[in-house]
Amino acid sequence: MYSQKNKKTKIDMKIKKAIILAAGFGKRLNPLTLKTPKPLLKIGDTTVLENTINLLKNYGIQEIAINTFYLSEQIVSFLNKLNLEIKIISIVEEKEILGTGGGIVNASKLIEEDYFFVINPDTIWSQSYLKELEELEKNFFEKKLENALLVVNKLKSFDTSLKGDFNLDGQGMINFESPNNFIYTGCQIFQKKVFTSFSAKPFPVNLIWQKLIQDKKVGGVESKQDFLHLTSIKIYNDLVKKY
Fold first, then answer.
1. What are the boundaries of each domain within the chain?
2. Peptide bond before residue 31 is cis, with ω within 30 degrees of 0
């Protein structure tokens, strides 16, 4: 089972703050998301949002900012009912959908530290990811990166239709050179200073990736986990059957 509920040991790492992106419409999972926001869909007996929070808690994250927009009142109500051992510093209810880039810019205003995790709740985060997050953080600091992505080979994707986005070279740096066999898992680390030149307006995070990759400031760690991700209603239904 993928749930992190019973995990008690926390990893003692440097990064203590994180942003969870939970504002999207989840249109590819219609009709389920017509009345329920994607972060509140369940695999087994746990919502994907709570599973993500549990992963961060088990890693040692102390404070989380969560951005919301679509059906945000349901997410707010759900979080208020959870008995969490972690501080939600703010639930950021956006006035307009800002996309992944604008959403991070907006939520990052609440993060006082110089660096933080950003994570998507539509990946099914198993306990095995904890060591990979630890490796990602170590690489981030050792290589003095501005951005670090947890990526996975497309051959390990449950959704076999996904194509690769990136290449990971022998030095652990991300680029767009062929072959692009790696998929972004939905977990990354940013330096806050990256966002000083961006405003909280709608734009995708890949605009930031493009700039940083061009400047050779993005590193990566390859995940060895099977990549389970809510990409479509078919994939969701298949995952429900699997778990």
1. 17-242
2. yes
State how far the Cα of 196 lies from the Cα of 113, in Å rounded to an integer.
14
Non-local (6+) Cβ contacts of 57 within 8 A are 4, 10, 84, 85, 86
Q: Which helix or strand (DSSP H or E) is residue 147 part of? A: strand 147-153
Among residues 155, 152, 149, the alpha carbon closest in space to that of 133 is found at 149
pTM given for the model: 0.93
Q: Give me the sign of the Cα torsion angle 180, 185, 189, 194.
A: positive
Report in angstroms the alpha-carbon separations of 27 from 38, 101, 230, 243.
Answer: 9, 19, 11, 23
- Give the tens place of pLDDT for each residue, 161-196: 999 999 999 999 999 999 999 999 999 999 999 998
Third-level CATH fold of 17-242: Spore Coat Polysaccharide Biosynthesis Protein SpsA; Chain A (3.90.550)
d(CA 29, CA 32): 6
Q: Distance between terminal CA atoms of the chain?
A: 7
| Cβ atoms of 139 and 172 closer than 8 Å | yes
Q: Is the separation of the CB atoms in 113 and 193 below 8 Å?
A: no
